[in-house]
Amino acid sequence: MHAFPLSRRAVLAATAAAAALTAVPLTPGPARAAEDTGEARPYRWRNVVIGGTGFITGVLFPPRVRGLAYARTDIGGAYRWDDRAARWVPLLDHLGWDDWNLLGVEAMAVDPAHPDRLYLACGTYAQAWAGNGAILRSEDRGRTWQRTDLTVKLGANEDGRGTGERLLVDPRDSDTLWLGTRHDGLWKSTDRGATWTPATGFPATPSTTGQGVTLLAAARRTVYAGWGDADGTAPNLFRTADGTTWEPAPGQPSGTAAKVPVRAAYDRHTRELYVTYADTPGPNGQSAGSVHKLCTVDGRWSEVTPVRPGGTTEDGSADSFGYGGVAVDARRPGTVVVSTNNRWAAVDTLFRTTDGGRTWTSLKDSAVLDVSETPYLRWGEERPKFGWWIQAVALDPYDSEHLVYGTGATLYGTRDLRRWAPQIRGLEEASVTQLVSPPAGRAHLISGSRDIGVMYHERLTSSPARGMATNPVSGSATGLAQAARRPAYVVRAGWGDNGNGAYSHDGGRTWAPFAAQPDIARSAPGPIATNADGSVLLWSFVHWDGTKHPAHRSADNGTTWSAVPSFPKGATPVADPADPTLFYAYDTDTGTLLASTDGGRSFTARATGLPAGDAQYKLVAAPGRTGDLWLSTKFNGLYRSTDGGVTVTEVESCRASHTLGFGKAADGAGYPAIYQVGAIGAVTAVYRSDDEARSWTRINDDRHQWGWTGETITGDPRVHGRVYLATNGRGIQYGEPT
């Protein structure tokens, strides 16, 4: 599950476009050289390989093209499968800073009659602080796009994001498209998605719960629409045979186990529509569900649920779950696969039938999972689990045994229905929060992400061989720091199963939990820092709802802790990289830079009157220097102090700075290379300076923007020009001059 930082609401509201129903060209183009203030070799950008790490919410095989598939994610864009290269190709990396909300893909559709036509419904959040959604239209399988901005919001990272698809090309007319929305009912386009209007005659009222239309499916020339706001007694599946008149599907199931239609798939051989149901849209919270099929010839419904939720497991736990994905075999009549969802006690599975649902086989029971390519999927255990949040299931129309299913972390595939492995190359969806590039050792990068904790990257081109950091197994990372003068010592903070803080004495390869932790760390782990020689820890605490708590200090590697009342609550501690007695902090509430000269025991104010009011302001220290501090204040620019915060001056070369980091100096330069996400002119982009911020060179281009990239950035202290960039949904990007 991914969550965007809510502290960005004010900025998001200010940048959200007042969308109109007009077509806007959206073809990736060359870099905007006008924003450059220096010359540099072009950069090559690639993902640091982890492998998936996010929720795959939909997979689609076009019916008439062998070897082609598309995948959508909740915050990381959409992808096209390159069968020859056996990897996924990202399709939305060109979306820039102002369009971050479009990196969540609510739904996708292909035109069966024109297989090169691809449509995406984009919009990550339906909240007031997020921008409106948009429809992206491609005639060349996502290589280039046209865009239509909508006047409604979509919610690709909200409850119900695994339902669908909510976008459909009408089976009677390729120029007509249907779009189901969460709050605004059903919409229709008659010009291939260029303009949209509310569909007339659709009987369901606008949604107040944020579910609305959950699915659209075609059965020959009839279109079906699922409705997620029914109470278990009212109709929740509607149909139209003429594109104008809608009616409830007669005889449809009712009750708690059929409250929300999740997904649907049509068997053209038997002319039966299979529908999965749950009591909530998921992916969380489902406790009941069922599977039903409709014979579209005579209108007869049949329940074909493989296993009814509500029993108990061997250890006595309640076996509660819903049903999620459904796929039919295009080559074998009556062959269908469905998935359970939110089945934590007995673990989710896929059920397969070859006789139209009379009998089912659990594919999990005979599955052999090979996660050697993405070892983190073991989650600290000896064997990986079959998966969770399974709502995306797809069968290759040209290969009955090529089956894939998405989970909350990866996409599994099989060619024989028994042996499974992640089919995830090229698809990287991590929401990254922490980056450290060590000055020495086996790893060039240590990273922390929201869902998969901390990883140690000995190689950038393969998933970390040690998987995610264990002992304790960590969930979302909130802090990561390395002792500047003792790089073998690394500390981390975040959600864990054996304490929320840990340390490493071998540069991040292996970890041990702190012997103790402050009580507040159990519910509000936040950023952590260690001083230059690793003798002192400072741990700050921020609850998920934004509540800030006093920081704590340890001088015995986390065995004992004491509060530091003078440290600004919720601030990020920053260690001086040269002097072990010095720490710094920036109070974003008051615009005050504070310093400690006694190893973090007490802090006093230094510079005051600086920009305030945004928790995303970031203070960083230049490597190898005492008191050389840089402050990124987003739209208020970049500031610097060379005396430990006593005096602070604005850097005039930079209009906006969102995050900043350092790397190896250029040949002949006396100061580290500086990297930042910011704006020198009008464009927010990635920049590098080799002359102490006197001038900047843009190093990304319009094809490589990745939406919101304001979390963290760092250069490599051993390789000049190499930079690592955290994204919110496209993993870790690293760039190098070509």
Protein described:
InterPro entries: TAT_signal, WD40/YVTN_repeat-like_dom_sf, Xyloglucanase_GH74. It comes from Streptomyces pactum. Belongs to the glycosyl hydrolase 74 family. It is a single chain. The chain is mainly β and 738 residues long. The chain folds into two domains: 6-30 and 51-422, YVTN repeat-like/Quinoprotein amine dehydrogenase (Methylamine Dehydrogenase, Chain H, 7 Propeller); 432-737, YVTN repeat-like/Quinoprotein amine dehydrogenase (Methylamine Dehydrogenase, Chain H, 7 Propeller), CATH 2.130.10. Helices cover 1% and strands 38% of the residues. It is built from one helix and 59 strands. It has a five-stranded antiparallel β-sheet, with no helix packed on it. A five-stranded mixed β-sheet has the order 29-33-32-31-30, with no helix packed on it. β15 and β16 (222-227) form a beta hairpin. The longest helix has 7 residues, at 9-15.
What does the average pLDDT come to?
Answer: 93
How widely separated are the two ends? 35 Å
Strand content: 35-45%
Regarding quaternary structure, what we see is single chain
Distinct helical segment count: 1
Query: Describe the biggest sheet?
Result: 5 strands, antiparallel
Domain module count: 2
Specify Rg, calculated over alpha carbons.
Answer: 26 Å
Query: In CATH terms, what is the fold-level topology of the largest domain?
Result: Methylamine Dehydrogenase, Chain H
CATH class of the largest domain: Mainly Beta
Structural class: mainly beta
- Tell me the CATH architecture of the largest domain: 7 Propeller
Give unreliable regions as ranges. 1-38
Number of strands: 59
Q: What is the topology, as strand order, of the major beta sheet?
A: 1-10-9-8-7
User: What global shape is seen?
Assistant: globular
Helix content: under 10%
CATH superfamily of the largest domain: YVTN repeat-like/Quinoprotein amine dehydrogenase
